[in-house]
Description:
Blueprint: H1 2-20, H2 26-47, H3 58-83
Helix pairs in contact: 1-2, 1-3, 2-3
Amino acid sequence: MGLIILVVVGAVLGWLGSILLRREDRGAILTMAGAGIVGALVASAVLGNANLLAGIGAYDLLWAVIGAVVAIGIADVARQRVAG
Length: 84
């Protein structure tokens, strides 16, 4: 159940990040959502202390949010460098 929560949190944060960064094309939204998912999963797995297939706690969710935000920022910088 925790894995599903982290995927949803990462995707929502990626979508919100694309709105805040004013990236409105479909590719940017999918890139940001993917980056959010990956960031949330990696940060929670590495820095959190929960089993991802079981429940997650508040600290694991906090690490997931921080990881998603960092991954979205990195994806945006990489996307800007490639674009021009």
